[in-house]
Amino acid sequence: MKNRVTPKQTNPVWPARAGLAAALLLASASSHAIEFGPDGMFSLTGFAEATVGLQGNYCLKCQVADSGVSKQIKAADAIIPGKSYKTVDTTFWQVQPYLGAKYNLGGGYELSGLLSQRWRDATVDGAAVETRYGGTVDVPDYWYDKSIALRHEDYGSVRIGSMTTRAWSVADYPYGTNVGVSEAWASSGAGYGMLANAIRVNTRNFDVADGDLFLELTYDQGNTKFTRLKPAFYELYAQYHKGDLVVDAMYQDATNGGAGAWGHAPFSGVTPYSLDDSFVATNGNQFGSNKQSIAMIMARYQYNAQIEISGGIRRNYWNGADVVFNPATKWTTAFNVDYTNPFATSNPGYSAVSADVMLGLRYRMDKWTFSTGMVYLGTADTKNPSDRGQNNSAVINTFGAKYNYAKGLQLEGTVGMVHYAKQGLSPMSMPGNASFSNVDSRIATDGNWLTVGLVYSF
User: By mean pLDDT, which of 55-64, 199-208, 298-307 is the weakest?
Assistant: First the structure.
């Protein structure tokens, strides 16, 4: 019977350069948006990306357990003996449209709505990759945006519905995307990235210390069918802008979301099934409460017209999750578990704290933009006697070039590399053992990749 995991805990086949998000869309929306309806009430924007590449040190289906089994389950640790890794060719595509609407209510008020979804897929050596969910929708059952908002020019705004968190979306763009580490930076760590039942309140800009300060609070109630393990998500976001310096800070505090280290994860409940809320095993065990949090600060500075410097630091906290399995839903919870006691009726999860760092540099020259980015996923501090990756760390580097070929069309190329401190389970901040680079830390400590492609935004 298969132990399952929170969506997208498995390893994506595309490397770090794939998380382009809405970067070019947002950068060019004002000039390429398709407007229609009375007084341009509706707008359609979006982007499409396609790449081909070479991936080194890739091992296809090397894990003994099914690829859907979380790295937090001990059964997923083993590698098939005699399996070798090699260089493979890859393809990748993704597309995401945004349909927006706005209506001026008068008196400084504006009513707006936004609808957006993403589709993506990939191949390795010409063969379709085993998809994460059996389809091309990025995260099934979750929208990137499906919300309405009321805004006043003097007071701020209120938005309700499905939306992405600031910790994921801002880390993804502009920080990670601009220097080729969007997936490695935004989709790692103890945070969550997608909300389905959220309310977001933000202020207007305040004049503070000769700069502009923007504040925002987001709350999500998760799956309301969980009553014993009631979910609650809070995110506080602040941005300070002064001249050529922008500082973004956010704090997430989440109770009873799915345990994991995928910063893009949707927030719902401790499992996707409300039946698990009242489940009691024959030995009396139940699914336990889960708590995770992140504190992150990032900054970018435009040194001159050509050079931009960026960086960020993040603190992750997990309270850990015991191993509990419900045969009715076929769902298992586990995070940072001690497996040293073979007679334990329920292997216990341990709390852990880690820190991650991002650095980036961009140089613009006419139609060209050159960049380099680095992400360090650090070791974790935990009392768990089992080695669950807390003693490993990873450094991911990229070097990229982009060329503005035509209006809305950009050509891009990226060289990337990864280095693990040791061979074994990947660092605590990584959702899988081969996440972000496709180099499995249980097989090799180093690897690299090369991709070229194009992005069209409208």
Answer: 55-64
**Over residues 126-146, mean pLDDT:** 80
Are the CB atoms for 44 and 29 separated by under 8 Å? no
Per-position b or e across 389-416, b if 16+ CB within 10 A of its CB = bbebbbebbbebbbeeeeebebebbbbb
Nearest one of 370, 380, 387, 385 to 188, comparing CA atoms:
380
Complete DSSP assignment for 379-400: EEEE--SS-SSTT--EEEEEEE
Least confident of 32-46, 96-110, 158-172, 220-234: 32-46
> By C-alpha distance, which of 163, 89, 122, 17 is closest to 455?
17
Name the burial class of residue 282, with classes exposed (0-12), middle (13-18) and buried (19+) by CB atoms within 10 angstroms of its CB: exposed
User: In this structure, what token pair is assigned to residue 18?
Assistant: 């794939």
- Tell me the pLDDT of the chain averaged across its residues: 91
Rounded to whole angstroms, the Cα distance separating 124 from 134 reads 16
Report the alpha-carbon distance of residue 402 to residue 409 in Å, rounded.
10
Alpha-carbon gap, residue 292 to 264, rounded angstroms: 14
Task: Tell me the pLDDT band of 39, cut-offs 50, 70 and 90.
Answer: confident
Nearest to 352 by CA among 316, 388, 322, 382: 382
Cβ contacts of residue 430 below 8 Å, gap of 6+?
Answer: 188, 261, 377, 389, 394, 436
Measure the CA–CA gap between 258 and 431, rounded to whole angstroms: 12
Strands 331-335 and 321-326, how do they pair?
A: antiparallel
Confirm if 394 and 423 have CB atoms less than 8 A apart.
no
